[in-house]
Amino acid sequence: MTPSPAPPVPLPDLVPSLRADLAAAGFTVDGIAAALGPVANDALGREQLLPADLATRDAGTPLATLVRLFTLGRPVPAEAVSAALPTLGLEGLERLGLVTVGEGRVRATCDLHPHADESHSWWVASDLSEMATGAALAPDHVLGIGGASTTLAAWTPRPQVDRALDMGTGCGVQALHLSGHAGSTVATDLSRRALDFAAFNAAVNGLELDLRCGSLFEPVAGQRFQLIVSNPPFVITPRVSDVPLFEYRDGGLAGDALVEAVVRTIGEHLEPGGIGQFLGNWEVAEGADWRDRVRGWLEGTGLDAWVIQRDVQDPAQYAELWARDGGNVPGTPEYEAMYAAWLADFATRGVGSVGFGVVTVQRPATARDTWVELVEESGPVSSPMGPAILAGVRARTWLAEHGDAGVLAAAWRCAEDVTEERHSRPGAEDPSVIVIRQGSGLRRAVRVDTVMAAFVSVCDGDLTAGQALEAIAALLEQDPAEVRAAALPVVRELVADGFLLPV
């Protein structure tokens, strides 16, 4: 196999010029979207390059040149590159290790992509994809901005913290996001090539990262953080010669043992009140419940946990997904051998399905019982989800610290995004179904009875929950104690999920 190209080098005398030229060319998420148009831009997001190729082939602008060079991996005339990067120049681009030049044509040695969130914009370098190179990935391939990394970035809560950890940083995407709300960030990875890319990406974006090489939490032994974020190599991969191992996805452990290891050990590295956020796969035996497996990992950790399963696949679906990953083509002998190896591996452990989800854990800041919530939410959610995750962690923590008495003593207000639906049979005086629905966060819908519908309707902060339930019981001529007992679990659920907010 051809050796992977050397990662780019963050030369301090040249990086500012690169940054200035990229900005001047409009090489940003919005700039590329406007230049390509919605069809080509959406296709590019699906790793279909042809529409973007056609859209930039004759454009002749600096932005089109950069897209062709770094995004599409196309050879570009040297004079066009020089014109697109007038401050850095072609020689500077070569010295940074971003391109090679031959016979008047320039070829990128890596992918360079703009990336952004609601308030920041960055550039991210990584290895060229198999779509750009036309070849299968190398084992030490450094992945760029993929679906998992964008999912984690969107779901990560973002409190202001003094110190954060990005474990398994890859090319450094999560560390870039952390830079916006962490005083300092440690980023670790087992791959030295990945750390070299992360160092370049930190430099080109004018940031400083504490980069450390090692597996899982080894590089930060004995240290604690207020926030830990991780997109670990969670893919369940057979340990056989027929299946190639990629550093970006394979953690070196059988089954879902790597995710289990993260769950069991992350609490040792969290400050009291600290939050951990990561993605994972978990195996579920035939006829078993995924909650039992994940709950078993959490036992004895002393952590609060909110685990949201977003997807589930049977063994064949999982094998098809990851056998294709890396540039392997269905129908080839190599693909068929990998497919069979995955199915055989799952069969040895009696796996009936594989779950994928987002794991949020918290080390309690006070002496109390921990809370654990394991739920399935496969539908559309808000983006970003991070604010809802942070609010949900804080609400569940408040409930654990204050109990039912605190809920009854507090005044609550209905969140602005909550609506009510009533359904009834034609001609009926009263509704047969009442549903309250939230428009943001997990976008949950909760079916409620008449008492709870009345309770939510009066949650404007004037009355405590206890006073409101007392008044509703009197109005309906029901026993106040029975009304409180029936309503409290639902009130707690509504508080936890953000339907009801503290005054």
From TrEMBL:
Pfam families: DUF7059 (PF23186), DUF7782 (PF25004), MTS (PF05175). InterPro entries: DNA_methylase_N6_adenine_CS (IPR002052), DUF7059 (IPR055487), DUF7782 (IPR056684), Euk-Arch_PrmC-MTase (IPR052190), SAM-dependent_MTases_sf (IPR029063), Small_mtfrase_dom (IPR007848). Gene3D superfamilies: Vaccinia Virus protein VP39 (3.40.50.150). GO terms for biological process: methylation. It comes from the Bacteria. Residues 396-502 form the DUF7782 domain. PROSITE patterns: N6_MTASE. Belongs to the eukaryotic/archaeal PrmC-related family. Keywords: Methyltransferase, S-adenosyl-L-methionine, Transferase. Residues 24-109 form the DUF7059 domain. One of its GO terms (molecular function) is nucleic acid binding. Signal peptide: none annotated. This is Methyltransferase family protein. GO terms for cellular component: eRF1 methyltransferase complex. Residues 150-235 form the Methyltransferase small domain.
